[in-house]
Design goal:
450 residues; alpha/beta; four-stranded parallel beta sheet; three-stranded parallel beta sheet; 22 helices; 7 strands; 49% helix; globular; disordered N terminus
Amino acid sequence: MSASTEGQREGSLETPTRHALDWKNPEFYNEGSLFKELERVFDICHGCRRCFSLCHSFPTLFEAIDDAPTMELDSVDKKVYWEVVDHCYLCDMCFMTKCPYVPPHPWNVDFPHLMLRAKAVKFQKGEVKTRDKILTSTDAVGKLAGIPVVVQMVNAANKNKTARKMLDQALGVHPDAFVPEYHSDTLRKREHARKTGETRIGAAPGAGTRGKVALFATCYGNYNEPQLGQDLIAIFEHNGIPVRLAEQERCCGMPKLELGDLEAVERAREANIPALAQLVDEGWDIVAPVPSCVLMFKQELPLMFPGDAEVQKVKNAIYDPFEYLMLRHKDGKLKTGFKHSLGKISYHVACHLRVQNIGMKTRDVLQLVPDTQVEPIERCSGHDGTYAVKSEFHEVAMKIGKPVVERIAKGGADHYTSDCPIAGHHLEEGLAGGKPPLHPLTLLRKAYGI
């Protein structure tokens, strides 16, 4: 450990805290001070190494140090720093489950947000690929790819080996990586009647919920897997919870956050937060079917805009679907008259769900189904937003997800599932064929027989 860290106490027993992101401060983008902080934190990581089994950022750093002339950080080429940054996909697992030096420890290590700062510096310098800008423009891509006729061409190309090789050569999208289908018949089109207000069901408030829900469909749930939203609506309405779609929504901003385009995140906040805050004022709770989107509103936007009352209002009113259902169950308002058992389920717990610190509510709900056994797998799938799609990272992404794939393959379960739909399909690729994953919402709807 360096001299600057000598004499400090080892580890921390206090509850981790997160500092607001000072991204409006010009010093945030000062590359010189950024590298001083990278050196300080990387030196602490080198002396600890508890995160070696997480993402590829840490093996990249530790191997570079071990191969350096002095076997210390001082002789590591600075270009390696950027490689470490590129391998971080902001899963937050190091902060939440491994690092003993997170705030309030005086060493004040927040590795994911340091990586975010570095990504923001890189973005401001213009050192990002066109591919990455396209992949993170989920609304624009979804609208374009979802145009009738165009959607059939896009989906056909995504399944064509020759077309995928051309896409790899042109943009660096790996030919074997999972790319989701697009739908011109989006969730919004399928549920158009629900946009105008409350459904025929009357709300029944509970101790922890107001009993009526506005669905933030998410760009993925709208354009790529609209069935997820339909499953959610069917389940909630079966349980007497009226559901409507949010009047207006754009991408939550998580893809742009991972790119370091913080101004684009701010634009997403300006589009989403006023509409969602108004729904909260009108008595609606908010749910979203994708963990990363819920996390964006629960954690990242509040840390980027700590003084914004509307952001805080949405933070306190948004729920993971199974978190909401368990709150209803606690109040005795969840129907448990299931028609079908689900057998044994291999359940991948998505990183961005774990970060929410709500416990395994998906497992808890599914295990209410008679003759159903849920085996949680708390390891990263390796997909992580756009990371696994990129040609230079795909093989590493498959390696990261291999322990999960092996657990599923050896488990002999009737179903495998993940709260993150893209993670589920990435695991499907690792399993090399066979049955596809079923989302937990789909499984629960199947159990209800609705």
